[in-house]
C-alpha cells in the first residue's frame, strides 16, 4: 500500500514521533494507522508526546568553528544527567555546525535543516523529536549566535554551561586566553565606549544615592558620582579589566604585548527558557 504524506501527518499528530519513524511504521504496518501507532509505541514508548510539555531547565552550550565562520548554540534538556548524554551532546554539536554552515534566520529555520542521527531524520526537528523518544526527556533548541565577520575565531567552553566566541587578529593563544577571561569575568562590553547609556545611567543613579548619604556638598557628590562611573566602566569593559591570568596588566595590555586585537566577543550560558 502506498504511504501518503497525509497518512504520515496524521500519525505524527497522534504520536508526535519523527516523520521518518512514522513513515517506517506505516510501511511496516502496510498502511494500517492503528497498527503503525502500536509499532511506534513499542519503539519509542510514546515518550515524545509525553515529554514535549515538560520544562527544559538544564542543557549545554556548544561551539563550532570552521575558518572564519563559527557558532555558539544553546540546547536545553530537563536534567543534568541528560546534559551529559552522548546522543544529546552529538545533537548539540551538529546544530552548532549547521548554524555555521547554513546561517539560519532563527530556531525554526535551523530546525528545518537536514540532519540524520541515531536513525532519526531527515531534519533537525525530526532528530530532536526522535531523541525525545529515545532519551525520555524534552529537548529544546533555545538560541544561537553565528559569527562570519571575516576575522579569525577562537572559542572557549567552560564545562558545558558557558560558551564564548572571540573574533580576533593575531596570536591564537592570546585570543583563547581572552575567551577564557570573558567566561570568568563577564564583561558587558568590549571597550568602555561600548557600554550602553542605560547601564551607565543605572550605575550613576546608584552612586548618587550612596554619595548623597555622605552629607558632603553637591559639587563633591558630583565628583564622587563621576568617579564611580569611571570605576564601573573599567570593571565591566573587557579591554580595561585586569587580565584574569595576570592582574598586574589589563586585557588591553596583554593583547598589545601579544600583537593581537579583539574585534568582538560573545558569551552565552544555559538557563531555563524565559
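^ C-alpha cells above, recovered residues below v
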Amino acid at each position: 500500500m502506498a504511504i501518503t504524506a497525509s497518512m504520515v501527518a496524521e500519525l505524527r499528530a497522534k504520536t508526535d514521533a519523527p516523520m521518518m519513524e512514522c513513515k517506517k511504521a506505516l510501511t511496516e504496518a502496510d498502511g494500517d494507522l492503528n497498527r503503525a501507532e502500536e509499532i511506534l509505541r513499542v519503539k519509542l514508548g510514546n515518550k515524545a508526546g509525553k515529554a514535549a510539555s515538560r520544562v527544559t531547565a538544564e542543557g549545554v552550550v556548544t561551539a563550532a568553528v570552521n575558518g572564519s565562520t563559527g557558532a555558539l548554540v544553546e540546547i536545553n534538556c530537563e536534567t543534568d544527567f541528560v546534559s551529559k548524554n552522548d546522543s544529546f551532546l552529538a545533537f548539540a554539536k551538529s546544530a552548532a555546525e549547521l548554524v555555521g554552515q547554513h546561517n539560519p534566520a532563527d530556531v525554526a529555520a535551523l530546525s528545518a535543516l537536514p540532519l540524520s542521527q541515531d536513525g532519526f531524520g531527515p531534519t533537525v526537528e525530526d532528530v530532536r523529536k526522535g531523541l525525545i523518544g529515545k532519551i525520555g526527556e524534552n529537548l529544546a533548541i533555545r538560541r544561537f549566535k553565528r559569527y562570519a565577520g571575516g576575522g579569525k575565531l577562537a572559542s572557549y567552553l567552560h564545562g558545558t554551561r558557558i560558551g564564548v566566541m572571540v573574533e580576533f587578529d593575531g596570536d591564537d593563544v592570546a585570543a583563547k586566553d581572552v575567551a577564557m577571561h570573558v567566561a570568568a569575568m563577564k564583561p558587558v562590553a568590549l571597550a568602555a565606549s561600548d557600554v550602553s547609556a542605560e547601564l551607565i545611567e543605572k550605575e550613576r543613579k546608584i552612586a548618587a544615592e550612596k554619595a548623597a548619604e555622605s552629607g558632603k556638598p553637591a559639587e563633591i557628590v558630583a565628583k564622587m558620582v563621576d568617579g564611580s562611573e569611571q570605576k564601573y566602566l573599567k570593571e565591566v569593559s573587557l579591554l580595561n579589566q585586569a587580565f584574569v591570568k595576570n592582574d598586574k596588566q589589563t586585557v588591553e595590555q596583554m593583547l598589545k604585548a601579544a600583537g593581537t586585537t579583539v574585534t568582538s566577543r560573545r558569551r552565552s550560558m544555559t538557563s531555563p527558557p524565559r
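The first helix runs from residue 5 to 15.
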